Amino acid sequence: MAALEKWAADEFRSVNGQLEWIINKALKEAKRLKPDQDAEEEKG
Question: Given this model, what pLDDT does residue 43 score?
Fold first, then answer.
């Protein structure tokens, strides 16, 4: 958990934000997001 906290701090994100980013990246790489979901995530 400490490594995740440091990584989040390095990226100026909260731990929750970092986890969301990691999950979203994994979903994109696995092509599990629909194109409209991908656009919404980038806006938000």
Answer: 58
Residue range 20-36, pLDDT digits in tens: 999 999 999 999 987 76
Q: Is 20 within 8 Å of 4 (Cβ atoms)?
A: no
For residue 20, the enclosing domain spans 2-43
CA distance 5 to 14: 8
Entry pTM: 0.63
Q: CA-to-CA distance for 37 and 16, rounded, in angstroms?
A: 19
Structural domain count of the chain: 1
With helix as H, strand as E and coil as C, how does 5-36 read?
HHHHHHCCCCHHHHHHHHHHHHHHHCCCCCHH
